Amino acid sequence: MALPLCRLYLITPPRLDDLAGFARSLAHALDAGDVAALQIRLKDVPDDIVAAAVSVLMPIAAARDVAVILNDRPDLAAELGCDGVHVGQDDAALAEARRIVGKDRMVGVTCHDSLHLAMEAAEGGADYVAFGAFFPTTTKTAPFRAERELLTGWQADMVVPCVAIGGITVETAADLAAAGADFLAVSAGVWSYGEGPAAAVKAFNAAMAVGIADRAT
To answer: What is the DSSP letter of 112?
Structure first.
């Protein structure tokens, strides 16, 4: 069966104080609908905390064919056996990240609202580029604001997949899917969803399907 043209890319909350509880929520969420990837993004915690999270969450994701991407740390991504790493403009350079994780793991790059940064990343061998923030977000500081036309232009001209990130909710998902996003990266929009993460995954997939249909018209 062909994969959807726009898929969900989950990002963990920045802290996982109850790792076992989050693992249960993750399993329910991944069982509720299509999810392409899980980015483990824990901020300002020791490496052993990151390693513990990966050891618990990666088997849950792998059992459901969901790629596990580690934020910021290509060294830990390689050491812990993650499927890839996501680097920002202030993290390891793309070439250095690629050298560390190797050619068989994914490397994604934050490109903010910049077509220039995205072109450089694509030419440098990034497996995907991430644009955002598209909306205000409480998950992290987001000084850049991307416009939906960036997704449309990228989809028309480039092969490297693009990820939309930043404050995305069920209510805004269809429009970004219609605009041309290959993936929607979501954190609070899933984990803080009123009816729970599993319901959020179902709702996001339904909204993205509407957007994909609009893209075709």
So the answer is: T
At 71-91, the pLDDT tens digits run: 999 999 999 999 999 999 998
**CA 89 to the chain's CA centroid:** 16
Distance CA 116, CA 54 (A): 33
148/179 Cα distance (integer angstroms): 6
The pTM score is 0.96
Residue 92's pLDDT is: 85
74-88 burial code (b ≥16 CB/10 A, e <16): bbbbbebebbbbbbe
Expressed in percent and rounded to 5, the helix, strand and coil fractions of the chain are: 45, 15, 40
CA distance linking residue 187 with residue 22, whole number of Å: 13
Single-letter residue type at 203: A
Examine the pLDDT at 1 and tell me if it is beyond 80: no
d(CA 25, CA 19): 10
The average pLDDT across 20-41 equals 98
With beta carbons less than 8 A apart as the criterion, state whether 208 and 9 touch. Answer: no
Tell me the torsion sign for CA atoms 15, 29, 69, 180. Answer: negative
Six token digits for residue 126: 């990034």
Does residue 48 contact residue 75 with C-beta atoms inside 8 Å? no
- Cβ atoms < 10 Å from Cβ of 191: 19
